[in-house]
């Protein structure tokens, strides 16, 4: 059965790579949509035509698109992400540093949201139809659609300005102790927690309800097993498995949220980097940022799918039938 | 508790459900008792409340269910007012339940070993001992290769094996009472027979009382000491199995029995009896007898006074008019409504199939769903297709219709002219000539469209009719399938199952078809509704001269309607011939096993009990059929090496052809001696 | 009445639908209609009231506002909420109440149009991939996956940078990004319909693919499409607001809420909370309202 598993994993991996390849084409094509010439767009209408031509040559805008694409993607794969128009220096170090910062913030978000939302979802399912369920359902449903910048405003006003519980800037000076750094990350993390909470909680609730209503749970109850055993062994054992993929799928969404939150809290992450690049029409930086984000999403999806397969006996083996 | 304390006693039990704030009674004052070691059968059509009775016995009603009156006593203990701890104790030690779909009753993410062992662990047995006992329990339910099954997950087992595991789990606590709710519904006939045998044997071994719930009268009769008949939430009749079925007292039981196409009845013998009207909506009848609106004997008393139990010998019935009902002669099965015998001479061939095969590709494997099938269907004839799941009968139907393209090489001819393999390539004439009535009308009728639209669309597409001609034909069709104009504006969900199937039949007949394929058209229906649909199909055939390919797993139904029968196994025709010859033999060993697997009420009436033949092992995967004769891995009459090396041929020219190496004389006949000793059935399969 | 609850696992409960669903009768006058169920759902009614309120503001706002939302009053900048200016004034003295009322307009035209575009395209695509299947399905499926691999905001940024931000571009971009999401929902609904026998019956009548897709299948997948559309509308508002906040959506001098927050949030630390909180509250109430409506519809259709 191992070979089958390996085949499956191989198939998934190649599909992911295909997705990434297509993604790079889409990103590249997006950059090509820019009307007019790049040099003019960067230097402005009054610039010297020779300088414009020089920039066009530097970025390769005077070569055929196919050629530029392969040059770009080839360099990208060797770690050369090109040179930023704005900073006139290689893109890669910017991406690396920003990614590290964003991962810190993302980690804080997930550490808070995963236990909280799964707990709430399961709790709501156990009280299905009664007031705790109604409250959790309506609250999570409402929170999940509030844009981050809106909830950020509320959080900054209440927790940051009026109550002064938390610092309102995520940025810290170099050499700040880790715990203090963490404190600065809590307020920026909360808007993302609010959005993700509703989504994951709803999924966890639905999964738990389905397991509760299943015949096998009824079998367990009719066996006379203690309630604890029924819930933890039979209900949650089956209910929480699909939640893994749900959580992983949120990674991609969250990066989108980072764009807003990082810029609002002035945090040097991949999101604010993409936004700055977009505002400055810094295409190498923008392309690199977007492709990195896509790669992260594809990688997490791949990992979640594999984990799900490993944990689910029905998928793990070929099956007797 | 004394040894005569009933294992289960319901005293005047009423149960209701609360839906959207409305309370509806599903059980009304039901009383019965099951003695220690007794098996009690509850039988009834869908919606009669039999499952509710089962769950009430364990006090495991759905969340919106409530007991509105009466008592439930398990081993003398009243369970209606138990606290949660007491209830858990009861379920831990005294009662067990097995329900219909074993695949869903087992936890998909736990091994079989853990699921059985936890029953022991719950009463304080140590893990290691519990696992040991679990394995011993698997041996008791005759699971071959217990070691492998212990570490398996449920999805790795076949349906029959899963149900054995569920039974093992249920019996692990050695319960006083075992509740079986349709335990074999959904299993194939031969597997069902094995599971029923197993239940019978374990009942003796464990001396447990059983509440057996089924919609199938023949199975109930075979398994149970006493039977209770439920109708619309009331127990209308009760008695010792054989007596009750031979001499029913209640008009409902009488009617129900006469709906069955049992006792070797055929369409030429007459139409089946039906029960007029509909099951009353829940709670619509508050006074009097629940059967009044559909009863032949009802009068003013029936409408006002609910009849109490009346005992006649060992039997009990709740009816004011037992005397009149029993005197009417309706309690015998012989009284058939005669129809003028149709000339048994069939016309020229309507449909000819030769050498048709279908291979599906599953990953890198080739799955031969249908292998080299040839058959001829004459005008006005019915060909029954019989076989278990995986036999290829539905694929064959789809091939005939052109919904699935056959492998190159085969030929399908309609009136001597070849037709295209795919429906969309077929001419309008061929499309209208070959139509189908699907198994499930909920799936076959577009729920967004009205009955009028459903039938009219077929009339214009297939019949080429428009305007007034179409309306006239519509009305004619509608009355031919016994629908009324009132139904035309309704959508499918507003109709009962039987009415929906009538719409589907009307649609199939819209273009005056030559051949209609009926794919299990009554298997989703209750017997009383089934009888009406079978009658309708028989009537339409005698008036329209259409040919049927009739697919069913119910041998009684197939026998009633079919002129010829083909038996399929792993995509091959194992036997084909005139219906009576196939039934009476000499027949193929597989046909013999199939016939023997199905309990038949006819046996009860004829007083004969044919020897039971059971198949060993499981149906091989169509991905890897056994070499030689495909049936050799399960054949009780296997003669030797030739069966494993050479596939027998199906004689092409014989009227009654059998694909077997045995000579005609050596093949089994109805009532013949069993080929193997009974105790060899469970010959241990070397693991 | 004896014991209403019947389970040892008191709260876990058993299936509420398990035993009792099939009265084999003619259920003619059974459950209340879907509309009836909707009107009795509290959360739906609250959501609908909120949405209708903002739709009213969008349509009639310009006629009811106390001040001209676009004219500045440099003598009266950053005024606290007062009797004259209930919600205060902004940096250049514009009346915030008037701007919040009128601000419902841009988002309530951009987001619904984008959603409509995505629904039309996504439904067609979903029907095609689900019914026709084969290589077409694989190809489109892969493309959809690529689009879904990127956060919506990021894709939108890429395209908006390239094409330049304007309301039309925003509608187009969001419409295109939401298309695969709707197509995916429609496709899975179509796939389960496709396996039903009425499709086979239509093929046996010789019906063409267009008839089967749009006359046979489409009416049966309308409920999930309706639910998906309302849910998407919520997210469209979310995305448009976020894009406006980032400067890539609705452009000044519009009174759009996201834009207003973007222009003023730097003032928050200075204590001028009213410049952003009312617009934030308006945005939150609108998305929550739409979402409550979506949830109500979903509950009624199940």
Architecture blueprint of SSEs:
The complex is a heterotrimer of chains A (321), B (687) and C (302).
Chain A: H1 2-32, H2 38-43, H3 49-59, H4 65-77, H5 92-126, H6 131-143, H7 148-162, H8 178-212, H9 215-222, H10 227-239, H11 241-264, H12 270-279, H13 283-311, H14 313-316
Chain B: E1 8-19, E2 22-34, E3 39-43, H1 50-57, E4 65-74, E5 77-78, H2 84-93, E6 95-98, H3 102-105, H4 112-122, H5 127-140, H6 146-150, H7 159-171, E7 177-181, H8 189-206, E8 209-214, H9 217-223, E9 226-231, E10 234-240, H10 241-246, H11 251-259, H12 300-304, E11 310-312, E12 315-317, H13 322-327, E13 349-362, E14 365-378, E15 382-386, H14 393-401, E16 411-414, E17 417-418, H15 428-433, E18 434-437, H16 441-444, H17 451-461, H18 467-480, H19 497-508, E19 515-519, H20 527-544, E20 547-551, H21 555-561, E21 564-569, E22 572-578, H22 579-584, H23 589-597, H24 601-606, H25 641-645, E23 657-658
Parallel strand pairs in B: 3-8, 3-9, 6-7, 7-8, 15-20, 15-21, 18-19, 19-20
Antiparallel strand pairs in B: 1-2, 1-4, 4-5, 9-10, 10-12, 11-12, 13-14, 13-16, 16-17, 21-22, 22-23
Chain C: H1 34-40, H2 42-64, H3 96-102, H4 104-132, H5 134-148, H6 152-163, H7 167-194, H8 197-204, H9 209-246, H10 257-264, H11 274-301
Description:
The complex is a heterotrimer of chains A (321), B (687) and C (302). With 321 residues, chain A is mainly α. Chain A has helices spanning 2-32, 38-43, 49-59, 65-77, 92-126, 131-143, 148-162, 178-212, 215-222, 227-239, 241-264, 270-279, 283-311, 313-316. Chain A starts with a helix and ends in a 5-residue tail after the last helix. Chain B has 687 residues and is an alpha/beta fold. Chain B has four domains: 8-94 and 175-224, 3-Layer(aba) Sandwich (Rossmann fold), CATH 3.40.50; 107-170; 250-327, no CATH class; 349-577, P-loop containing nucleotide triphosphate hydrolases (Rossmann fold, 3-Layer(aba) Sandwich), CATH 3.40.50.300. Chain B is 32% helix and 21% strand. The model of chain B is unreliable at 674-687 (pLDDT under 50). Chain C is mostly helical and 302 residues long. Chain C has a single domain (35-66, 82-301), classed as MetI-like fold (Orthogonal Bundle). Chain C has eleven helices and no strands. Chain C has helices at residues 34-40, 42-64, 96-102, 104-132, 134-148, 152-163, 167-194, 197-204, 209-246, 257-264, 274-301. Chains in contact: A-B, A-C, B-C. At the B-C interface, helix 1, strand 4, helix 2, strand 18 and helix 17 of B face helix 8 and helix 9 of C.
């Amino acid at each position: 059965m191992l070979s089958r598993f390996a085949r499956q994993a191989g198939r998934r991996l190649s599909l992911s790579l295909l997705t990434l390849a297509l993604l790079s084409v889409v990103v590249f094509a997006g950059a090509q949509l820019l009307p007019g010439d790049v040099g003019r767009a960067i230097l402005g209408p009054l610039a010297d035509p020779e300088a414009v031509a020089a920039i066009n040559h530097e970025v390769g805008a005077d070569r055929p698109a196919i050629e530029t694409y392969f040059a770009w993607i080839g360099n990208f794969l060797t770690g050369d992400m090109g040179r930023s128009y704005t900073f006139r220096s290689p893109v890669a170090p910017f991406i690396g540093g920003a990614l590290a910062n964003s991962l810190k913030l993302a980690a804080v978000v997930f550490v808070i949201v995963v236990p909280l939302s799964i707990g709430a979802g399961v709790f709501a399912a156990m009280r299905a139809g009664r007031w705790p369920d109604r409250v959790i359902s309506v609250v999570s449903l409402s929170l999940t659609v509030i844009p981050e910048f809106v909830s950020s405003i509320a959080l900054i006003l209440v927790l940051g300005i009026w109550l002064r519980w938390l610092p309102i800037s995520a940025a810290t000076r170099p050499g700040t102790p880790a715990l203090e750094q963490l404190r600065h990350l809590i307020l920026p993390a909360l808007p993302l927690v609010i959005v993700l909470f509703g989504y994951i909680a709803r999924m966890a609730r639905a999964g738990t309800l389905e397991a509760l209503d299943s015949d096998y749970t009824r079998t367990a109850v009719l066996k006379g097993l203690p309630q604890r055993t029924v819930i933890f062994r039979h209900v949650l054992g089956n209910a929480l498995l699909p939640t893994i993929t749900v959580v992983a799928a949120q990674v991609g969404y969250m990066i989108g949220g980072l764009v807003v939150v990082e810029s609002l809290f002035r945090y040097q992450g991949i999101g604010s980097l993409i936004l700055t690049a977009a505002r400055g029409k810094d295409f190498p930086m923008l392309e690199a940022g977007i492709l990195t984000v896509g790669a992260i999403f594809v990688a997490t999806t791949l990992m979640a799918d594999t984990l799900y397969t490993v944990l689910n006996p029905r998928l793990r083996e070929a099956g007797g039938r | 508790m004394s040894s005569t304390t009933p294992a289960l006693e319901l005293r005047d039990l009423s149960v209701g459900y609360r839906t959207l704030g409305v309370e509806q009674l599903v059980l009304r004052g039901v009383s019965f008792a099951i003695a220690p070691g007794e098996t009690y059968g509850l039988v009834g059509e869908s919606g009669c409340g039999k499952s509710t009775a089962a769950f009430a016995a364990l006090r495991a009603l759905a969340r919106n269910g409530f007991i509105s009156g009466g008592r439930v006593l398990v081993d003398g203990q009243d369970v209606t007012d138990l606290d949660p701890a007491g209830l858990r104790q009861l379920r831990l030690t005294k009662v067990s339940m097995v329900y219909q779909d074993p695949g869903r009753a087992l936890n998909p993410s736990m091994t079989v070993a853990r699921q059985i062992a936890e029953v022991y662990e719950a009463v304080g047995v140590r893990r290691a001992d519990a696992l040991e006992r679990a394995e011993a329990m698997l041996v008791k339910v005759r699971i071959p290769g217990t070691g492998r099954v212990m570490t398996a997950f449920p999805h790795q087992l076949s349906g029959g094996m899963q149900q054995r595991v569920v039974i093992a789990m249920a019996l692990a606590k050695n319960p006083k009472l075992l509740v079986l709710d349709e335990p074999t519904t959904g299993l194939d006939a031969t597997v069902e027979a094995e599971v029923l045998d197993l239940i019978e044997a374990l009942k003796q071994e464990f001396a447990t009382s059983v509440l057996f719930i089924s919609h199938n009268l023949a199975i109930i009769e075979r398994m149970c000491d006493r039977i209770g008949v439920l109708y619309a939430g009331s127990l209308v009749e009760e008695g010792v199995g054989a007596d009750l079925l031979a001499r029913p007292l209640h008009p409902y039981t009488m009617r129900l029995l006469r709906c069955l196409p049992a006792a070797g009845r055929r369409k030429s013998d007459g139409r089946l009896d039906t029960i007029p009207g509909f099951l009353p909506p829940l709670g619509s009848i508050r006074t009097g007898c629940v059967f009044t609106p559909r009863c032949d004997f009802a009068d003013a008393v029936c409408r006002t006074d609910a009849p109490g139990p009346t005992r006649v010998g060992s039997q009990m019935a709740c009816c004011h008019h037992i005397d009149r009902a029993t005197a009417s002669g309706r309690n015998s099965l012989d009284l058939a409504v005669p129809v003028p015998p149709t000339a048994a001479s069939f016309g020229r061939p309507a449909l000819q199939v030769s050498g048709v095969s279908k291979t599906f590709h599953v990953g890198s494997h080739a799955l031969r769903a249908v292998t080299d099938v040839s058959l001829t269907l004459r005008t006005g004839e019915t060909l029954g297709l019989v076989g278990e799941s995986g036999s290829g009968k539905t694929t064959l139907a789809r091939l005939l219709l052109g919904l699935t393209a056959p492998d190159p090489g085969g030929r399908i001819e309609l009136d001597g002219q070849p037709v295209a393999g795919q429906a969309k390539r077929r001419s309008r004439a061929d499309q209208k000539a070959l139509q189908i009535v699907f198994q499930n009308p909920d799936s076959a009728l577009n729920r967004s469209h009205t009955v009028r639209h459903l039938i009219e669309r077929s009339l214009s597409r297939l019949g080429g009719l428009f305007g007034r001609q179409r309306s006239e034909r519509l009305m004619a069709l509608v009355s031919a399938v016994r629908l009324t104009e009132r139904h035309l504006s309704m959508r499918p969900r507003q109709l009962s199952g039987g009415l929906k199937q009538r719409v589907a039949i009307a649609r199939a007949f819209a273009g005056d078809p030559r051949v209609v394929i009926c794919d299990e058209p009554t298997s989703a229906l209750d017997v009383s509704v089934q009888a009406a649909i079978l009658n309708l199909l028989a009537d339409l055939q005698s008036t329209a001269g259409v040919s049927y390919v009739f697919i069913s797993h119910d041998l009684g139904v197939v026998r009633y309607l079919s002129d010829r029968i083909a038996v399929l196994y792993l995509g091959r025709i194992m036997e084909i011939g005139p219906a009576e010859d196939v039934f009476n033999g000499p027949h193929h060993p597989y046909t013999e096993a199939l016939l023997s697997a199905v309990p038949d009420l006819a046996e009860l009436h004829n007083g004969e009990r044919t020897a039971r033949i059971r198949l060993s092992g499981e149906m091989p995967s169509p991905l890897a059929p056994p070499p030689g004769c495909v049936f050799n891995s399960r054949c009780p009459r296997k003669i030797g090496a030739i069966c494993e090396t050479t596939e027998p041929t199906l004689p092409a020219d014989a009227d009654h052809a059998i694909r077997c190496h045995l000579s005609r004389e050596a093949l089994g006949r109805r009532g013949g001696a069993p080929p193997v000793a009974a105790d060899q059935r469970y010959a241990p399969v070397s693991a | 009445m004896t014991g209403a609850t019947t389970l040892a696992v008191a709260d876990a409960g058993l299936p509420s639908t398990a035993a009792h669903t099939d009265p084999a009768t003619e259920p003619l006058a059974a459950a209340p209609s879907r509309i009836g169920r909707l009107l009795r759902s509290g959360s739906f009614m609250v959501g609908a009231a909120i949405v209708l309120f903002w739709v009213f503001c969008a349509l009639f706002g310009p006629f009811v506002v106390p001040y001209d939302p676009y004219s500045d009053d440099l003598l009266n900048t950053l005024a606290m909420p007062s009797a004259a200016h209930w919600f205060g004034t902004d940096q250049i003295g514009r009346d915030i109440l008037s701007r919040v009322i009128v601000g419902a307009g841009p988002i309530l035209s951009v987001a619904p149009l984008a959603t409509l575009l995505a629904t039309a395209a996504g439904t067609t695509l979903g029907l095609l991939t689900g019914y026709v299947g084969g290589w077409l399905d694989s190809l489109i499926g892969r493309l959809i996956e690529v689009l879904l691999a990127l956060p919506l905001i990021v894709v939108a940024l890429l395209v908006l940078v390239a094409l330049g931000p304007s309301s039309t571009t925003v509608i187009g971009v969001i419409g295109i990004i939401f298309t695969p999401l709707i197509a995916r929902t429609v496709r899975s609904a179509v796939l389960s319909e496709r396996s039903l026998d009425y499709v086979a019956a239509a093929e046996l009548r010789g019906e063409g693919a267009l008839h089967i897709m749009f006359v046979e299948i489409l009416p049966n997948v309308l409920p999930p499409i309706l639910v998906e559309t309302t849910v998407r509308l919520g997210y469209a508002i979310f995305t448009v607001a976020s894009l406006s906040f980032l400067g890539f959506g609705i452009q000044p001098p519009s009174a759009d809420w996201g834009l207003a927050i973007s222009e003023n949030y730097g003032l928050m630390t200075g204590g001028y909370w009213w410049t952003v909180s009312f617009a934030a509250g308006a945005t939150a109430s609108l998305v929550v309202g739409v979402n409550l409506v979506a949830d109500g519809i979903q509950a009624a259709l199940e």
